[in-house]
UniProtKB/TrEMBL annotation:
Protein's UniProt name: SDR family NAD(P)-dependent oxidoreductase
Higher taxonomy: Bacteria, Pseudomonadati, Pseudomonadota, Betaproteobacteria, Neisseriales
The family this protein is said to belong to: Belongs to the short-chain dehydrogenases/reductases (SDR) family.
Keywords: Oxidoreductase
Recorded GO CC terms: membrane
Pfam family, one: adh_short
PANTHER family given in the database record: DEHYDROGENASE/REDUCTASE SDR FAMILY MEMBER 7B, SHORT CHAIN DEHYDROGENASE FAMILY PROTEIN
Annotated organism of origin: Aquitalea palustris
Length: 250
């Protein structure tokens, strides 16, 4: 495997992104740029990764993730720092559905951070990858985006937008040396899902999900369900007749 790889990670403080970074460093990466909203948290992640891979040059960038102008400047800065082979867009939040129903500000915030922000980053990086003529653009969506469900339809709608956007980018770059890969994790044991875990839900380990992502990216899979079992589960859920689906408490 080539050691001449350069990676940019947006939302580098997320547990999923951090574990992907660790795996990539084990494979041999020359340069990595970590983009985060919180300067101190991003630097802590970078410091840990530098200890794990002293040979890798790791830079950090802090940014506002909601303002288009700030996103454009951040992407320009990242791509001026390195010419990325892989861009991972991994940030987001998991809102409480009830809170989003009762508070339109929280509803809007959930849609902005989980949908608008990732696709704006994706569009900005797509321009740079197109200019470079190569690269992999990886967006983390969710199985929640496969079908709207009463338990999380605000989050699901946001991830559904990411899915459609990724599909459009895949169509745009079909036949080129640019690959757009969509990751659809199932419920994963991270700080973002702590409130779900406390209710007794079974969650996949973040290590397993990260391994699925890194493996899928290496193979150039257009859609990566993580863990893989969710591909079959969501196939069934997507095709359930409405009369049956509406009786389910999911």
């Amino acid at each position: 495997m080539s050691t001449m790889r350069k990676i940019v990670i947006v939302g580098a403080t997320s547990a999923m992104a951090e574990h992907c970074a660790r795996l990539w460093l084990q494979q041999g990466v020359d340069e990595m740029v970590l983009i985060g909203r919180d300067v101190q948290r991003t630097e802590r992640v970078a410091a840990d990764l530098r200890v794990r891979a002293p040979q890798c040059r790791i830079e950090t960038i802090s940014s506002d993730f909601l303002q288009p102008e700030a996103i454009a400047r951040t992407v320009d800065q990242a791509c001026n720092t390195i010419n990325p082979d892989i861009v991972l867009i991994a940030h987001g939040s998991l809102p409480e559905q009830a809170d989003c129903q009762q508070d339109l500000q929280q509803n809007r915030a959930a849609l902005e951070v989980n949908a608008l922000s990732p696709v704006l980053f994706a569009e900005a990086f797509a321009t740079h990858l197109e200019q470079a003529g190569q690269g992999k653009l990886v967006l983390i969506g969710s199985v929640a985006g496969d079908r709207g469900r009463k338990s999380n339809y605000v989050y699901g709608a946001a991830k559904g937008l990411v899915t459609r956007y990724a599909q459009g980018l895949q169509h745009r770059f079909a036949g080129s040396r640019i690959q757009v890969l969509l990751v659809k994790p199932g419920p994963t044991d991270t700080p973002m899902t702590a409130h779900i875990k406390s209710s007794g839900a079974k969650l996949a380990s973040v290590e397993q999900v990260a391994a699925n992502i890194v493996s899928g990216v290496a193979r150039g899979k257009m859609v990566i369900y993580a863990p893989a079992k969710w591909q079959l589960i969501m196939l069934i859920i997507r095709h359930l007749p409405r009369v049956i689906f509406n009786q389910m408490n999911i």
